[in-house]
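Z., the sequence and structure:
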Amino acid sequence: MNVEEARERILSAAEDLYYQKGYSAVGMDELRTTAGVSLRRLYALFPSKDDIITAVLDRKHSEWESGLTGRVASAPDTARDRLLAIYAYLEEWFTTESFRGCAFINAFGELGGTHPEIAALVRDHKASFQQYVTALVRDLGASDDLAAQLSILAEGAQSTAAISRDPAVAGQARSAAQTLIDSALTTA
């Protein structure tokens, strides 16, 4: 297998294992076995576990942005509907059998206190989402405060759905978002 194939196998295995079991619970030996690569190849491509976690989180960030922006772009052509599409995207995600919460929240909870580079990646990911929501809110003509509120709703929904295993949380967050958006539109 060539370098790209090995890299892809390692990252796919790591993504699945970390998401199912947690970052700390998965050792390099288990990852090597699951990926079907030698330990030498694994360390040649990723000298440390942090390197693998960073690469997995980079993939998760791209996956999140692609899925979210795709869902928002497919919403009807009003700023309000585009904002509400965020919660439709969450609902679709929450109903997948593999849903285990936000990989970034999980990483921060496990590693944020002891791995500053992982904490920085998580902060960057969350800031990127906040900026995206802010741009959508500005299209609506509302204040940036609404963006912060809607982002907090989405983040809270992810944590609550992961803990409760109840995808209905997305609908509840969407309902709260509708109230906040409608209120912002009447005061704008």
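The CA atoms of residues 126 and 157 lie 14 Å apart. The two ends are 59 Å apart (CA to CA).

Let me know what you think.
H.
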